[in-house]
Design a protein that fits this description.
Largest sheet: none
Number of domains: 1
Number of strands: 0
Strand content: under 5%
Radius of gyration: 22 Å
Distance between the termini: 59 Å
């Protein structure tokens, strides 16, 4: 901690470092996870489909949008589904640490006030929102998955 002076700034500085650095790292981790799932989905495109497109002389842009993207979409959305769950967890945890607004701050504040019913209600809301986000992406994944 740097010696800025007495008061609020020295108290906030360590918390700010703790909250921003993991958030940046988690953001990069989410991007890597999405990139890996996208690359895996593109690599899993059946070679027969690409050979047919090559035989029919389909251009690279059209091949990307009509063959590769639809074939890789389920894997890409699965990566998004995993990432959004982790992102939701990180957002709520960051709100608990940083404070000010948000449901994470509400849980932390009510815990400090010993209002257990509000804490349990907020935790249930966090769970329901997380499940809703997961179900939305699961449904989107089913919409773009085609039987072979």
């Amino acid at each position: 901690m740097s010696r800025v002076g007495r008061g609020v700034i020295p108290k906030l500085e360590p918390k700010t470092r703790r909250c921003t650095l993991p958030s940046i790292g988690d953001d990069l981790l989410q991007q890597r996870r999405m990139l890996i799932n996208t690359a895996f989905g593109v690599a899993a495109v059946r070679k027969e489909w690409l050979n047919v497109a090559r035989t029919l002389e389909v251009g690279p842009l059209r091949r990307a949008f009509t063959i590769i993207l639809p074939a890789a979409a389920p894997t890409i959305l699965t990566g998004m589904r995993i990432s959004i769950g982790i992102a939701w967890l990180v957002i709520v945890a960051a709100e608990m640490l940083v404070g000010g607004t948000g449901i994470g701050y509400f849980v932390w504040n009510e815990w400090n006030n010993l209002s257990i019913t509000n804490v349990i209600t907020a935790i249930l809301v966090i769970g329901v929102v997380g499940m809703a986000l997961d179900q939305i992406l699961a449904r989107a994944t089913r919409l773009v998955t085609f039987p072979e």
